Amino acid sequence: MTDIRAQADFGQRSVVADRIGRSLMGFNALLTVGAVIYGVTQMLQASPDTLVVEAWRTFGFLVFLSLNLMVALWPRKIAGAWELILLHKIAVTVFAMAVGGANEAEATAWIDGWLVITTILAYVLTRGWLAWETLRKAQ
Q: How far are the Cα atoms of 5, 60, 119 from residue 79, in angstroms, in the given order?
């Protein structure tokens, strides 16, 4: 608790908000574990024509698992991580909604839409934009 309070330094309400935001990102990381497992099963079943695409997608899930864990653990220490997550998830959600009837588009729009909403909420609750202060302090 002392570490959270020292990082946030905004009073008791922010400690609770910080915990909720971190928990949301931890939950998103847990959901991403499911995506990694799904990806591995898809890789194991993939034909030679789609194996590289399935592997690429699965490795991408690993990257997002890592990013979600990093912002859950250190929400104000890694400049750009939040914004990178949001950029990708918003782009994927918009694209999936735009192509509508394509295979997996609806499920992708719902899943990544959830990730956009919860990541924005966690970003606000943890004051994730303060991560950019680490760069200013380093200079």
A: 20, 20, 15
